[in-house]
Design a protein that fits this description.
- It is a single chain.
- The chain has 276 residues and is α+β, with helices and mostly antiparallel strands.
- It is 40% helix and 23% strand.
- The protein is built from five helices and ten strands; from the N terminus they run ααααββββββββββα.
- The protein has a five-stranded mixed beta sheet with strand order 3-2-1-5-8. Strands 4-10-9-6-7 form a five-stranded mixed beta sheet, covered by helices on one side.
């Protein structure tokens, strides 16, 4: 080997280090993606909840999927069993297999079982809906939500003080998840919040995906109400109208910002009496 080749050849560690670093980065990325995908699967595709009531919805959702998959396994098993064990015999001269009609036990089975399944679903849905929509009227934070064509107005009441936040239709070309447009509702973590929903024009729907819950906003004297208990998870979460309400329905966006209690107290103190 010539001296020139000996001096230009890189050491083994220098030649292998970039490749090893790339492999390590790939493994770390795959692990992170795998953990995120696992969390997503465990939630059945739902976003991570930010309220105590949303955990009830998540349990009901997972239970529904388990029941549906169990039913699917039984149905698929019966279909495969029929295909395998009830095929026409190779040497059979019969045009059709023996026809069995009016099998009373089977007819009772496929009538009673669905009725039982629907009844079970109805029971758990009614129970959880009652819990989710329960309003105690004792929540320390109250939010009056007014949905109008095509934005939102939030009036937050806390310890005798009020903060009003109103918005205009969002320019979708400027919408950014890290810096959302539209009115922003500020709420404290680890606290109970009561919502009172009203519309002056048409039906809207108040929806924050991380609540795992949405409720229609009706015009007229009747207001829809619900109550949440926020979890210890700060951040900004996008909300929207989930009811087609007019030409600018898609621009009817807002955001909910969860902050520590001390920051919320400071926000109320600094903004009380002013309209944002």
């Amino acid at each position: 080997m010539s001296p020139t080749r000996r001096t230009t050849r890189r050491p083994w560690t220098r030649r292998r280090l970039p490749g090893a670093a790339a492999v390590a980065l790939l493994v770390a990325s795959a692990t992170a993606c795998s953990n995120e995908a696992s969390d997503q699967w465990s939630r059945g595709g739902m976003p991570e909840s930010i309220t105590k009531q949303a955990e009830i919805t998540q349990t009901l959702w997972n239970g529904g999927w388990i029941a549906a998959l169990a039913t699917g396994v039984v149905v698929w098993g019966l279909i495969l069993w029929t295909c395998v064990f009830h095929r026409k015999k190779k040497n059979s001269t019969e045009a059709l297999p023996p026809q069995v009609r009016y099998n009373l036990p089977i007819e009772i089975l496929y009538t009673v079982v669905p009725v039982i399944m629907v009844s079970v679903f109805f029971f758990f849905t009614a129970r959880d809906q009652t819990e989710i929509t329960k309003v105690t009227n004792t929540a320390p934070v109250k939010v009056y939500v007014e949905g109008y064509q095509w934005s939102w107005r939030f009036t937050t009441e806390y310890e005798g003080q009020k903060v009003v936040t109103a918005g205009v239709p969002v320019d979708l070309s400027k919408q950014d998840k890290d810096n959302p447009q539209g009115p922003q509702l500020v709420l404290p973590v680890n606290n109970r919040v009561q919502f009172d929903l009203h519309s002056p024009d048409v039906i809207h729907s108040f929806w924050v995906p991380e609540f795992l819950f949405k409720l229609d906003v009706f015009p007229g004297p009747t207001h829809n109400q619900f109550e949440i208990t926020t979890l210890d998870r700060t951040g900004v979460f996008i909300g929207r109208c989930a009811e087609l309400c007019g030409v600018d329905h898609s621009r009817m966006l807002f955001s909910v910002k969860l902050v520590p209690q001390a920051e919320f107290d400071q926000f109320i103190k600094s903004q009380a009496g002013s309209a944002q």
